[in-house]
Design a protein that fits this description.
- The complex is a heterodimer.
- By secondary structure, chain A is an alpha/beta fold.
- Chain A has a single domain, classed as P-loop containing nucleotide triphosphate hydrolases (Rossmann fold, 3-Layer(aba) Sandwich), CATH 3.40.50.300.
- Chain A has seven helices and ten strands.
- In chain A, strands 6-7-8-3-9-10 form a six-stranded mixed β-sheet, sandwiched between helices. Chain A has a four-stranded antiparallel β-sheet with strand order 2-1-4-5, covered by helices on one side.
- In chain A, helix 4 (117-130) packs across helix 5 and helix 5 runs parallel beside helix 6.
- The radius of gyration of chain A is 17 Å and the shape is globular.
- By secondary structure, chain B is of the alpha+beta class.
- Chain B has two domains: 2-60 and 285-424, no CATH class; 68-280, no CATH class.
- In chain B, 51% of the residues lie in helices and 15% in strands.
- Chain B has eleven helices and twelve strands.
- Chain B has helices spanning 2-21, 23-62, 76-86, 185-193, 230-234, 261-271, 283-323, 325-333, 338-375, 389-415, 421-424; strands at 68-72, 92-103, 126-127, 133-134, 143-151, 162-166, 180-184, 200-202, 212-218, 225-229, 250-255, 277-280.
- The radius of gyration of chain B is 33 Å and the shape is elongated.
- The chains are: A alpha/beta, B alpha+beta.
- Chains A and B meet through helix 1 and helix 2 of A and helix 1, helix 8, helix 9 and helix 11 of B.
Chain lengths: 226, 425
């Protein structure tokens, strides 16, 4: 599904350019779950940005589903983000004036094709059901707990049936118990064939992933499990 | 096509959600734009109403656009040719004008020369073809001089006279021995001011006539004038005396475009050794020059006010985009293209502009309705005035233009928000 080879990213615009990612190699297949752990500033979020096509690598090769997309133009990148990726962030980024269902539907109303209202609603309810909060569809974020809000964000990521789910510290703002529920919801997606790349500081959550990679000063290494 | 439609619908849906989420801000944008759009609507409405009023006055005086008028010297041969050519025709009406003095016999009228009532032209002298002139005799007395126009048919098909009181001449009945007269407002004013006997002197008649006033019309003229059926006047005139060349008489024929009367009449006039003066009425072109400059000045002022409104939308738009950086970055993260982000902002400002336009148009229409109801009787220009559709169109265009101008820079800002904003938050 995802093949990164020698990905390098250099942060420019400072007195001295700083290498954030240094020859990263990573391979993730459909249905696999991968945890990326590392200290703050180690380049975890930058790696996720490159994988999610928010950013372009300075060097290296990025192959997604057999296609080289290392230098893909922004218009195509937007289309690929819509068709292949789902994103979950530490902050939930729910729009407070919209209901849970409308927040999830936001990923469907993105200018990449058009779904009739009835079909849109069905897919939204299905996504909310997958994360166990279909009953909160009409609630606004202000009336939901942190865990519920994050699950709405996961439903938003899942509603387009992505092939890759990218989660950047999704449990960072949640207590342990709620965080576990959120990880459950994310792992549920891998059972349906979706690849999961999780950036986390939490060892327990990382341990639940199929593989763990350490990112230290831009260099990615796979941890060998005992 | 499907993709374009999807993007259009998406921007519209998200734009409406954005407006609903920020009602107060939208209202403030609308307030700043309202005066600008209102100014455009009012200027356009004022220009349209003034244009119509002006056009209406010109139509009263000169006739509807496209009417062909043929003038000719006040000669009896010309009158004979006219009467035989237009007799029984509905597409042509002739008017033969002459002096008429209504009032006490043997006195000079209060407005010699047919001057407007209250003015003294010092006229009254009659000059003949051999060059000698006669001064009017007798003292000034209870008589009013009018320009008497004898008509062969209903002239209102060419000049839309407005009936002020009474009725217009009825051409369907048999001619009356007491000629029925319809006065214009200036003539009516004379008869209101001066009590005169109902006796009319017309040069060439076999006896003084006893006219009957049947109505008063607004014919757009400032001189006293009376209209009479030519056959009712001819009853009192010997053959060949209908035209008096010595009192500045005139013969005019008004025709519908393409009327065959024109060819017949000009041939007859030419055969009589006389000339014709043909003129096509084109009031709209004539007034266009007068209105162009005025409209330009007022539209410039309205444009300035509109620009201030645009600056308001721009200001609020920029502030809103600044507040929604994370939302736009997130939308990009879920695959929304930059162009659609710009489209969302433009949709919001466009909808705001259109809502403002609707409010301004509604307010203007209500104000006009109130003005016509309250002041329609005292100000004829406001009587029966409808809100001109051109003003509505101008308001909508102003709203759209303001929405685009005010939303353009915020839209560019929104499209340029880096997607990594969500990762760094």
């Amino acid at each position: 599904m995802i093949e990164l080879t020698g990905i390098t990213k250099v942060l420019k615009g400072q007195s001295e350019p700083r290498t954030i990612l240094d020859g990263v190699d990573l391979s993730v297949a459909a249905g696999q779950s991968v945890a990326i752990v590392g200290r703050s500033g180690s380049g975890k979020s930058t790696l996720l940005s490159v994988i999610g096509l928010f950013d372009r690598p300075d060097q290296g090769r990025y192959v997604l589903a057999g296609q080289d997309i290392s230098r893909v133009p922004e218009r195509r990148a937007a289309k690929l983000r819509s068709s292949h990726f789902g994103f979950v962030f530490q902050r939930f980024f729910l729009l407070k004036h919209l209901t849970a269902a409308q927040n999830v539907a936001m990923a469907l109303v993105n200018g990449q094709g058009w779904l009739p209202r009835r079909e849109r609603r069905a897919r939204v309810m299905q996504a909310l059901d997958q994360v166990g909060i279909a009953h909160l569809a009409k609630n606004r974020p202000a009336k939901m707990s942190g865990g519920e809000q994050q699950r709405v964000a996961i439903a938003r990521a899942l509603v387009r049936n992505p092939q890759v789910l990218l989660a950047d510290e999704p449990t960072g703002a949640l207590d342990t118990e709620t965080g576990t529920l959120v990880i459950d919801a994310l792992l549920g997606a891998t059972e349906r064939g979706c690849a999961l790349i999780l950036v986390t500081h939490d060892r327990d959550h990382a341990a639940r992933m199929g593989r763990i990679h350490d990112l230290v000063d831009g260099v990615l290494t796979e941890r060998v499990r005992a | 096509m499907m993709r374009l439609s999807g993007r259009f619908r998406s921007s519209l849906i998200i734009g409406i959600q954005g407006i609903r989420a920020r009602k107060l801000r939208t209202l403030l944008s609308m307030v700043s734009l309202f005066l600008g759009v209102l100014a455009v609507v009012v200027v356009q409405a004022g220009a349209s109403i003034a244009e119509r009023a002006l056009l209406s006055d010109l139509e009263l005086t000169y006739g509807y656009d496209g009417t062909r008028t043929i003038g000719m010297p006040p000669e009896q041969k010309a009158a004979d040719a006219v009467l035989t050519s237009v007799k029984g025709r509905t597409d042509a009406v002739a008017g033969i004008s002459m002096q008429g003095i209504i009032g006490e016999p043997g006195v000079r009228p209060v407005n010699e020369g047919g001057a407007p009532i209250g003015q003294d032209w010092g006229g009254g002298q009659v000059c003949f073809a051999d060059g000698h002139c006669e001064e009017p005799s007798g003292p000034k007395g209870a008589a009013v001089e009018v320009r008497l126009t004898a008509l062969t048919g209903d002239i209102r098909q060419f000049r839309p006279f407005r009936t002020v009181s009474g009725t217009w001449l009825d051409f369907t009945t048999v001619p009356s021995m007491a000629p029925r007269l319809v006065l214009n407002q200036e003539a009516a004013k004379g008869f209101r001011q001066y009590q005169v006997p109902a006796e009319m002197r017309v040069r060439g008649t076999t006896a003084n006539l006893t006219p009957r006033f049947v109505g008063v019309v607004d014919d757009g003229g400032t001189e006293p004038r009376a209209y009479v059926r030519v056959d009712e006047l001819a009853t009192w005139m010997p053959p060949g005396k209908l035209v008096d060349p010595n009192t500045a008489g005139e013969i005019n024929v008004m025709l519908r475009p393409g009327s065959p009367v024109e060819q017949v009449l000009t041939a007859k006039i030419k055969a009589a050794g006389l000339e014709t003066y043909v003129n096509d009425v084109n009031n709209r072109e004539q007034q266009e020059d007068q209105l162009r400059l005025m409209r330009l000045v007022f539209f410039s002022m309205a444009g300035l006010v509109l620009l201030i409104g645009v600056a308001g939308i721009l200001n609020v738009g920029l502030a809103t985009v600044g507040e929604r950086v994370e939302e736009f970055a997130l939308r990009r993260a879920v695959g929304t293209p930059r162009s659609l982000l710009a489209g969302i902002v433009l949709a919001e400002t466009l909808l705001t502009g259109l809502l403002t336009a609707a409010a301004a148009i509604g307010a203007s229409a209500l104000a006009l309705k109130a003005a016509t109801t309250l002041a329609g009787n005292t100000h004829p220009i406001l009587d029966n005035v409808q809100f001109p559709w051109e003003a509505g169109v101008a308001g909508i265009i102003a709203g759209i233009v303001a929405g685009i101008l005010g939303g353009f820079v915020p839209a560019l800002r929104a499209a340029g928000i880096p997607i990594a904003t969500v990762m760094r938050a």
